[in-house]
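Hi L.,

You mentioned the student needs an example of a multi-chain input paired with its predicted structure. This one should do, with 292 residues in total across all chains.
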Amino acid sequence: MGRPPCCDKDGIKKGPWTPEEDIILVSYIQEHGPGNWRSVPTNTGLQRCSKSCRLRWTNYLRPGIKRGNFTPHEEGMIIHLQALLGNKWAAIASYLPQRTDNDIKNYWNTHLKKKLKRFQSAFQTQEPQLPGTTSTSSSPHYKFGNDDNVATQPQLTSTCYASSTENISRLLESWMKCSPISNPKHHDNDDNNNNNTSYHGGCVGEQDDHFETLMSFDNLNDHKESMVTTTCDSVEEDIINEGGNKVNENIDSMEEDDENNPPLTFLEKWLLDESTTSRQVTEEILRLPSMF
DNA sequence: AAACCCCGCAACCGCGACCGT
DNA sequence: CACGGTCGCGGTTGCGGGGTT
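Structure written out for the whole complex:
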């Protein structure tokens, strides 16, 4: 609303981050924890705006990030959640803690959206009745599925980007040796930690596993609870606000079955339980694109 | 081999929400 | 309650790499 961009100031650098900048940022966050982004450029001397620092951290430097291929299961989750929540990438990302919202958004826009178009155009004449659905028009988001090529397609080829991460890892290694991991002071803003759901273990891209080892400070796990609560609330709100419009009958029936359970419970059950009907629907969808 | 085109991804931008004063 | 500052989210852009001609 007329507020000038935070990055308009002179001397604020834009564009790709250098490994050196990454090291500075990571070192600072290791010491102070994520959050209070406003003070990051000041305290680190980085010629970046606070937004840029936060973005760099959440989308690339944050530990536990998985890069590269999306598995069919991840794809199915995204399809499910997009159908449920719409373009709430942050909410979707909270169910795929190793993926960033940006990653998911990009993947949706570059892969899944196209598949939707292909699928819809191909089925405009055929109007298939998906199992478990009463009407294809009532659940339009399900009108597409997995392209075999997508999951197997290498998405992160060897680039200077990956080598940058390795450089950072190398440089950080020496830093870590002489700097025992401090206990980052948590900041009040829960939103800062929305994506910090998996700082421990998990599979990361091969170029990042070294990095992850360096970055796996356990105390960040404390942020989990607030994230889950937030997600639960937002999902519940979405379901209520939209009157279940985006939720097909399978979910409605599940909701009735689980009406004593919190919404998150049934949603997670729906998403994760391989035996649920809706899961079967997705599997059906995932099988469809082989014809394209 | 060079030029061109397409695609994927990292980063930026603008806006709304939230929080403290 | 109003206002200003900060943060997070979603949409968009632009660059670089790979593929094609």
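You could point out the following to them. Residues 1, 3, 5-7, 14-17, 51-52, 55-56, 59-60, 102-103, 106-107, 109-111, 155-156, 161, 188-189, 191 of chain A lie near DNA strand B (CB under 10 Å from a C1'). Residues 101-123 of chain A form the longest helix (23 residues).

Best wishes,
N.
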